[in-house]
Amino acid sequence: MAIAGNAFRETVRQPVFCVLLGLALATIVFSPWFAMFTLFEDVKLVKDMGLSTILLAGLLLAVLSAATVVSEEVRGRTALMVVARPVGRGEFVLGKFLGILLAQWVGVSVLGFALVLTVRVGVPEAVFTKLDMAVFWAELGAVALAVAVATAANYFLDKPFPSTAVLAALVLFALVFFAFGFFDKELKPVDYLQAMDLETAKACVALLPMMAVLTAAAVACATRLALVMSLVACALFFALGTLGDYLFGGLAATSRLLGAVPWVLLPDFQVFWMGDALSAASDIPLSYLGAAAGYGALYALALLCLGMWLFEAREIQ
Predict the structure, then answer these.
(1) What is the pLDDT of residues 40-71, one digit of tens each?
(2) 1 in helix, strand or coil?
(3) Which residue, 95, 208, 225, 272, shows the most beta carbons closer than 10 Å to its own?
(4) Half-sphere exposure in the Cβ direction for 147 (13 Å, CA)
(5) Which residues pair with 183 in a beta bridge?
(6) Are 93 and 216 a contacting pair, CB within 8 Å?
(7) Buried b (16+ CB within 10 A) or exposed e, 226-236
(8) Confidence band of 258 (pLDDT split at 50, 70, 90)
(9) Residue 226: phi, psi to the nearest 5?
């Protein structure tokens, strides 16, 4: 747990973590004004853009965090001091994975709250379209307050600005979400969370096990590869996992070994992508989220075991 805690703190303290999260947050919050130029599919575009932003940010954060927390420690011989103590290499990799994953989930949670709130704001389709500007200004206020809190903590208490800003944003966006759950767009009391798009929230939750798989892959790559090669390997892994059915499904159906092996070994990332369900206005059952979480946990465990084996076989000098 000590290794996981240190990995979490080191991850959220990285300026690149805060910058990428801020860029993704700005993209989501202002996405209604990007989508206003489309015809009739504005809200669906906001949802797709938001989920895609969360996914891309999660992939980049996983690779960059793993490269910083794992690869640089191995190259800088910091890991040697850790594994020289009564700490196994497997425990070292597991701790790093858990710490990075927790930081990933914090970032995804911030972006998820922002996406659900942005969907509630609506899209300015025409001049007569009524937007929930109270929620929009609350989002901007949460960002400004998080920056102010982080600045004050850094100046007066000597706390790291990036980690304080990220954690403050998580708390503030959660407060905005749960506070506006009591009111509709007219700020009239309604049944709790009735005015929130909970299906979009479920779609964001479905991305959490996907982040676990991507983080496990990034950690496994970071035990042997540098940043650029890790990014290339993880991007290829993500692309093959997303397009696996299209690329190998037909070959696997005809029992051809060339297609059957990668089709079985690669994860199906479409399991975690709920964008199509949101576009079709379909409900997302909680049982499906549970099954997706189990699938992601098993695949992340397999990748974590691979990472442990790669790290065990590596000589640290």
Answers:
(1) 667 888 999 999 999 999 999 999 998 888 87
(2) coil
(3) 272
(4) 8
(5) 189
(6) no
(7) ebeebbebbee
(8) low
(9) -80, 180
Q: pLDDT tens, 67-117? A: 888 876 666 555 554 555 566 778 888 999 999 999 999 999 999 999 999
Question: Nearest to residue 181, comparing CAs of 123, 111, 117?
Answer: 117
DSSP letter, residue 224 = T
Instruction: Please name the residues in contact with 176: beta carbons below 8 A apart, sequence gap of 6 or more.
Output: 113, 117, 135, 138, 139, 142
pTM, rounded to two decimals: 0.90
pLDDT(268) > 90: no
| Residue 215 contacts residue 301 (beta carbons within 8 Å) | no
What is the band of 37 on the pLDDT scale with cuts at 50, 70, 90? low
152: three-class secondary structure by DSSP: helix
What is the structure's pLDDT at 79?
52
| Spatial CB neighbours of 54, under 8 Å, sequence gap ≥ 6 | 24, 28, 108, 111, 112, 115, 204, 207
Mean per-residue pLDDT for 300-315? 85
CB-based contact 115:204 (threshold 8 Å): yes
Which residues partner with 189 through β-bridges? 183
Tokens of 96: 């790093």
In terms of phi and psi (left: phi > 0; alpha: psi -120 to 50; beta: otherwise), the region of 281 is left
Q: Identify whether the C-beta of residue 11 lies closer than 8 Å to the C-beta of residue 98.
A: no
Backbone angles phi, psi at 21, to 5 degrees: -65, -40
